[in-house]
Amino acid sequence: MKKRHLFAPGPTPVAPEALLAMARPILHHRAPEFETLLAEVREGLKGLFQTTEEVLIFAASGTGGMEAAVVNTLSPGEKALVIRGGKFGERWGEICQAYNINFIPVDVPYGGAVNPGLVAAALEKDPQITAIFSTHSETSTGVLHDIQAIAQVVRKTPTLLVVDAITSLGVVDLPMDAWGIDVVIAGSQKAFMLPPGLTMVGVSQKAWAVVKQSRLPKYYFDFAAEHKNLLKNQSHFTPAISLIVGLQETLRMIRNEGLHNVIRRHERLAAAMRAGVTALGLELFAERPTPAVTAVKAPAGIDGGTIVKTLRAKHGVTIAGGQGSLKGKIFRLATMGYADSSDVVVALSALELTLSELGYPIKLGEGIRAAQEILQRQPES
Ligand SMILES: Cc1ncc(COP(=O)(O)O)c(C=O)c1O
């Protein structure tokens, strides 16, 4: 028997409370019970997104939410600005390309965070830009971009700021209304403690004016049609009923813990993870690390992919390797969503054993000890 542990940056472990709720016989989505449930979910999402506006729910992975944001904010011939510094930033550009939208790229070297001044300069040079598309937590490099600083620039202009918050919502503070972000996209398989399959999209008042005029083609991902239904506690099409039942549970868990404490927990676990890997002599990849996932450079002479494979095969631990040009060069450990301090200890213990088996010189326990010191210094809230 081998226990399995999931420390990938998505999908993440599903909360048992959600698993049990989702195992109940299915509700009908036009029945009053579901409408009551959806009313509660709407309020819970507003709390999590820190907005007074409605948060739309679609049955899709996070990329569906990103595509929905593009087709609902732009019209043919309009221009976008895309912040790229990893696989997910690049995805914004790929979606724009698929819809023949010209975009100005702001390229950031992998591992770096965007300089908000570059965004301000690009916007000043070209005030016709309809929307800026950015990642918040760039899962592929482990970087957290300074969205608050970017929002400060963009909110004073007619341009919209669209943020992929797929691994940042419920992980770091992202007060959509207070910061003035126009579209915020989340995914169920991250901090929501649910399986993949739901994307949730917050839309600001400023964005609604643009959404109503947008002329890129859309059918399923029609924000206005979904919004109209949501106000009646309905969905336009058949929703992912079981996932929404699970969402009710995990939103309750987040509310009971308190969003502030959820965010603190993620920061604490990530700080412990970072301390653990650096105590082993390893280097972090990100210049401005996200608490969602710790990206670590593979030590010289050891392929990052071999670390990932050994962890899974010998220790039952799933983490992620590097993507694209980072393949083999980094590995990524996450404690996102349904995670607490024992998870950091398990992940580091398996990592230490793996590195030792692969011939990397370490003293067993050194990483764990550094992590424990952080955990002890920053007690749970
Ligand atoms: C930051 C970010 N954006 C977008 C995505 C794409 O989401 P999905 O795989 O759910 O389509 C991911 C998935 O890992 C992500 O981490």
Give a verbal description of the structure.
It contains 14 helices and 14 strands. It starts with a strand and ends with a helix. The strands form 4 sheets. A 7-stranded mixed β-sheet has the order 2-10-9-8-5-3-4, with helices on both faces. Strands 11-14-13 form a 3-stranded antiparallel β-sheet, covered by helices on one side. The radius of gyration is 21 Å and the shape is globular. The protein has helices at residues 16-22, 32-49, 62-73, 87-98, 116-125, 147-154, 176-179, 205-213, 223-230, 241-257, 259-279, 304-315, 341-357, 366-377, and strands spanning 5-6, 55-59, 79-84, 102-107, 131-135, 137-138, 143-144, 160-164, 183-187, 198-203, 294-297, 317-318, 320-321, 330-333. By secondary structure, the protein is an alpha/beta fold. The chain has 2 domains: 17-257, Type I PLP-dependent aspartate aminotransferase-like (Major domain) (Aspartate Aminotransferase, domain 2, 3-Layer(aba) Sandwich), CATH 3.40.640; 259-377, Aspartate Aminotransferase, domain 1. It is 44% helix and 15% strand. Helix 7 (176-179) links the parallel strand 8 (160-164) and strand 9 (183-187). The structure holds pyridoxal-5'-phosphate (PLP).
Summarize the structure.
This protein has 381 residues and is of the alpha/beta class.
The CATH topology of the largest domain is given as: Aspartate Aminotransferase, domain 2
What is the ordering of alpha helices and beta strands? Answer: EHHEHEHEHEEEHEHEEHHHHEHEEEHH
Amino- and carboxy-terminal Cα gap: 35 Å
Shape: globular
What hetero molecules are in the model? pyridoxal-5'-phosphate
As a percent range, the share of strand residues is 5-15%
| CA-based gyration radius | 21 Å
What average pLDDT do the residues reach? 97
Number of helices: 14
Helical proportion? 40-55%
How many strand elements? 14
Structural class: alpha/beta
